[in-house]
Amino acid sequence: MQEKLLIIRKRHNYSIKYMAEYLGISTKQYSEKEKGRFEFTSDEMFDLKDLFGLCIEDIFMPRKHEIGDKVN
After folding, report:
1. Topology of domain 3-66, CATH
2. Helix, strand, or coil here: 68?
3. Are 8 and 52 in contact (CB under 8 A)?
């Protein structure tokens, strides 16, 4: 799950539909990506960075962290 993205999206009151349209993908694709089932492309990450005015690392967690494989 991309928890940071979910929190930021909700703070901005953006729906999944709005986000999907912004990225030019289906709502199902966006939902699956936000849930961590599929990865966002680098282009999508940069688009979201621009939308929110944040750094990529402030929006996205590394994949190993989002699926619970964090190694200390």
Report:
1. 434 Repressor (Amino-terminal Domain) (1.10.260)
2. coil
3. yes
